[in-house]
Write a structure and sequence with these properties.
By secondary structure, this protein is mostly helical. It has 5 helices and no strands. It has helices at residues 4-9, 14-42, 46-73, 90-100, 102-117.
Length: 118
C-alpha cells in the first residue's frame, strides 16, 4: 500500500488507470485472436490448445510488463512486480487476459482449425 507521501509525489490518477486497463484489454483481445489463428493452423486439439492459450497469454503479459512497466518501476521505490500504480490490481494485470480473450480465442481457433483441416 502506498503511503501518503508517495501519493503526493506520484499521484495515482484514476483516468490513467482506466486508460491503461482498456489498453491492456484491447491488446489481450487482439493477441488472443492471433493465438487462436496459430492454434487452428497448428491443428491443436483439446487440452493442448487450451494449454497453448494459457502459456501464450502469460507470456504476452510478461512481455507487456517488461516493455511497458518494468522500465518505469526501476526509478521508483516499489517492488518490480507491483502494478498497482498503473492498473486496478496485480491479479487483473496477470490473469485478466485469460478470461477476457477466451471467447475470441476459441472462435478463431475453431474457425481456422476447420478451414485448415477441411
Amino acid at each position: 500500500m502506498s503511503s501518503e507521501r508517495d501519493l503526493q509525489i506520484l499521484p495515482i490518477v484514476q483516468e490513467s488507470v482506466i486508460h491503461n486497463s482498456k489498453t491492456l484489454y484491447n491488446f489481450q483481445s487482439l493477441t488472443a485472436s492471433l493465438f487462436g489463428v496459430a492454434a487452428g493452423i497448428l491443428g491443436l486439439e483439446s487440452y493442448h490448445g487450451f494449454l497453448f492459450y494459457v502459456i501464450m497469454t502469460l507470456l504476452t503479459s510478461t512481455v507487456f510488463y517488461l516493455v511497458r512497466i518494468a522500465p518505469t518501476s526501476l526509478h521508483s521505490s516499489k517492488s518490480l512486480v507491483d502494478t498497482s500504480a498503473y492498473f486496478r490490481s496485480s491479479f487483473e494485470f496477470w490473469t485478466g487476459g485469460l478470461f477476457s480473450g477466451l471467447a475470441g480465442y476459441i472462435l478463431t481457433w475453431t474457425l481456422f482449425y476447420g478451414l485448415v483441416r477441411a
